[in-house]
Amino acid sequence: MTRPPGGVLAAIGDTPLVELTRIFPGSTFRTFAKLEAHNPGGSVKDRSALGMLLERIRTGDLVPGKSVVVESSSGNLGIGLAQACQYYELRFVCVVDPRTNPQNIAVMRALGAEVEVVTEPDPVTGEFLPARIDRVRELVRTIPLAYCPDQYGNPLNALAHRHTMREIVEQLAGRLDYLFCATSTCGTLRGCAEYAREIGLPVRIVAVDAIGSVIFDQPPGARLLPGHGASVRPALMRPGLADEVVHVGDLDCLVGCRRLARREAILAGGSSGAVLSALDTVRGRIPAGSVCAVILPDRGERYLDTIYSDAWATEHFGAVSHLWKDPVTEAPRC
Ligand SMILES: Cc1ncc(COP(=O)(O)O)c(C=O)c1O
User: Fold this and answer.
1) Ligand 1, residues 38, 39, 44, 213: which to mutate, most atoms within 8 A of Cβ?
2) Taking CA 184 as the corner, what is the angle to CA 203 and CA 300, rounded to the nearest 5 degrees?
3) Mutate to test the pocket of ligand 1, among 36, 76, 260, 295 (most ligand atoms within 8 A of CB)
4) Which one of 84, 261, 272, 294 has the lowest number of neighbouring Cβ atoms within 10 Å?
5) Is residue 194 scored above 90 in pLDDT?
6) Structural domains of the chain, with CATH
7) CA 23, CA 310: separation in Å to the nearest integer?
8) Can you give the pLDDT at residue 311?
């Protein structure tokens, strides 16, 4: 019998849910935000990392001090795995690509991970993700006692997020009409949706994907921001998990993040901006008195050189700061 996670891992989950009262002025519904940045590794993926390791430790497939965990991740899962592997004294090799945020790599290394950078994209698709997955397969074949959690296909990833939804339902005392959830592996979406359906909660689930992501059969395309979206359809995906899908572009993510920081004083990552932008898109259809929850997957510090950099914003989108500045309180003074 494996003991429940101790130490820092005991701090994973039970994240706060706070009401957003300023970002949608004049709205007739209430919006609550699940702050997944409060997990100790800084994101929702701490839950996935722990969930995918703990069960394998329990069954004896993963042996602390002997087994090696190998995974492809460009950020949050890698950090969550580095944290959990360090705690359980498991060697962890994380395969990343040149677009991985150097700060994420530094965090993983500080937590004891070995980070390997794949330098060439997949020759057929031009994407790095398939190249990273190929390298992970090779490492798993060649390293004794290696285990790849495979976040895109591992049901334990989705299972971990049943708790995310359970917590939201409990925090709102069962009163929830809409859930907005960013998608990449579909672990969060699937765990939340399956839990909600199982308890018979009549919640409308809105999946939030990136324009250019192929999860919901849209054409592939270039994306600037990491986090949500995927260039390969995840094996965890099931039809019917979401009642509706909203695709969000990079500029709208940025605007969502900047408004969240300005109006609610919450510094969050790109996919958080995406879920708020998605809510804004459908808000005209949300009946008065509804209760909405948005899952904000990670914190904004890792995006200071992109989303929160005025120079980066101008380079990619031009003069756009008027999109998040309040026209009354932030008008230039003469
Ligand atoms: C910042 C961020 N947002 C959203 C997601 C999507 O979550 P999921 O993989 O559960 O679909 C991820 C996944 O890595 C993420 O890192």
Assistant:
1) 44
2) 95
3) 76
4) 261
5) yes
6) 7-38+161-315 (3.40.50.1100), 45-153 (3.40.50.1100)
7) 21
8) 96
